[in-house]
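A sample copied in:

***
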Amino acid sequence: MTQTITKDQGTQHTMQQNHQKAAEHHEQASAHHKEASKSHESGDHKTAAHHAQVALGHASQAAEHATEASIKHADTHGTKK
């Protein structure tokens, strides 16, 4: 089983786990963007900004996991199309 270290927790994950973590972070980012939108619409700009910042963090973590999974795919299976 191929494993890699991700930056968010310093733990090792398999390719499948990296894909799963990326999906989870994308879902969390989406939820926070929705909350930011609701807060902005209601005039609560401070809460909207908070949710937007949290969403950005989740999006960044999702990108890191996706990158790690892609690197492991290339290392394991090559880069042929």
Q: What stands out?
A: The CA atoms of residues 3 and 13 lie 5 Å apart. The first strand starts at residue 3 and ends at 5. Helices lie at 15-41, 45-77.
